[in-house]
Amino acid sequence: MRILLSNLFLCDGTPNGFIADAAILIEGKTIVWTGPASEAPVAAAVRDLAGRVVIPGLINTHAHGGMSVQRGCCDNGDLFEWAQTIAPFTSVLSLEDNRFGCELAVMEMVRNGITTACDCTRFGAGIFSDVASAIGMRSLSGALANSPQYRKTGRANWPLAREETEGAMARHAGNGLVRHYLGAHSPYSCTAELLIEVKQAADELGLPFVIHLAESAKETEIVRERHGTTPMRWLHGLGLLDERSILAHCIWLDDEEIELLAETGASVAHNPVSNAKLASGIAPIPAMRQAGIVVGLGTDSTVSNNSLDIFQEMKASILLQRASSLDAHITDAADAFAMATREGARVLGWQDAIGTLVPGKQADLVVLDLDHPLGNTAQRVLSDIVYKAGPQHVREVMVAGSTIYADGRFSNIDAGAIFARIKQHYAHIPSA
Ligand SMILES: [Zn+2]
Question: How far is the CA of 112 from the centre of ligand 1 (A)?
Answer without folding.
Answer: 19
